[in-house]
Amino acid sequence: MQERNSATKLSEEVRSLELEKYLLQLEVDGLTVVPPEVHNFGMDRIDQMSALILEYAEAMTGTKFTLKDGPLSKLIFPEVKAGLGGQVPKDKSPGQFLIQQLGRKHRVFRDLAINPVALELIRCLIGRKVTRFSSHNSFVKWQGDWGYGPSLGMHADQTAMPLPWGRSALNANTNWCLTDYTKEGGSFAYVPGSHRFGTPAQYPQAVEKAVPIEARKGSLIVFHGATWHGAFPREIPGMRLSVANYYRHVGIQSQEDINGTFPRELADDCDEPELFRQLCGFNDAFPYAEPNQPVPQTA
Ligand SMILES: O=C(O)CCC(=O)C(=O)O
Ligand SMILES: [Fe+2]
């Protein structure tokens, strides 16, 4: 009798963490949703992250936020150049903003970024030894009449990379749902199987074929960098909070300058410092700040 899976190249980690079905869905749909009892990060730490993000949101905007009511005062957005959903009309409110560089703010976000289940699925997409961090952000979202507008902000994360895209992901992403995700609550949207088209999001198909990811608080969404995705506007009171831990192939530029500027002592303050440092790219050959090649000298 052949041992189960002996002819396939499933990693020891995939087998021991029992991730086969999530990996299959990633392969077929370009996205999977992992429930809290499988990634095991713990609901206490999910709630801890929500509370921290509400604190940061208040410090950044000057307005208190609650999960039930969103921002307690009216917020005015600065005029910015067009983002994911294009230019926001003057009479509309995006109802969302980003909190960046979470890995520098609290250990819980560093431990989240190396959650074994999330990292294993990402490494299956990008490659075990060549996976690195790109950025650690929170999408803070409340009731608003725009969100990303009618385009739903549909895009593929690895759009900056020239075509043709190969089979391996150049970027891959995790969105941790810190609150329940429902369509009317402004959930994530994606086109199943779109990672196999191997192109940036095409319109109008990306919007027409978009389906919501409805998932309970604590769920982990993992998706390929070629998967077309965006989000629905939040039509109901309250908030949708997520943490997006975004990863890259070692050869791809990171969003946050983690390699160059992430505080080394913070990298050591987490569940697995050696792994965290490797994902930061601290020991990578590139980019170098000073000449690093041996130079021959006169004998
Ligand atoms: O939920 C959203 O607003 C979209 C998230 C997204 O595009 C991403 O994490 O790459
Ligand atoms: Fe994205």
Please tag this protein with its features.
299 residues, alpha+beta, Jelly Rolls, six-stranded antiparallel sheet, three-stranded antiparallel sheet, 11 strands, binds 2-oxoglutaric acid, binds fe (ii) ion
Which percent range describes the beta-strand content?
15-25%
**Order of adjacent strands in the largest pleated sheet:** 1-9-6-11-5-4
Give a short account of the largest sheet. Answer: 6 strands, antiparallel
CATH superfamily name?
Answer: q2cbj1_9rhob like domain
N→C terminal distance:
65 Å
Q: How many strands?
A: 11
Q: From N to C, what is the helix and strand string?
A: HHEHHEEEHHEEEHEEEEHHH
Low-confidence segments, ≥5 residues, pLDDT <50? none
By helix and strand content, what is the structural category?
alpha+beta
Tally of helical segments: 10
**CATH secondary-structure class:** Mainly Beta
- Radius of gyration, in Å, reads 20 Å
Average pLDDT confidence is 95
Q: Which small molecules are bound?
A: 2-oxoglutaric acid, fe (ii) ion
Shape: globular
Helix content: 25-40%
Tell me what the structure shows.
The protein has helices at residues 12-17, 20-29, 36-39, 43-61, 107-113, 116-126, 205-208, 258-261, 264-267, 273-280; strands spanning 31-34, 65-66, 70-71, 96-99, 131-142, 171-177, 188-190, 211-212, 220-224, 229-231, 239-249. Strands 1-9-6-11-5-4 form a six-stranded antiparallel beta sheet. Strands 8-7-10 form a three-stranded antiparallel beta sheet, with no helix packed on it. Helices cover 26% and strands 18% of the residues. The model has no long low-confidence stretch (mean pLDDT 95). It has 299 residues and is α+β, with helices and mostly antiparallel strands. The structure holds 2-oxoglutaric acid and fe (ii) ion. 2-oxoglutaric acid binds next to strand 6, strand 10 and strand 11.
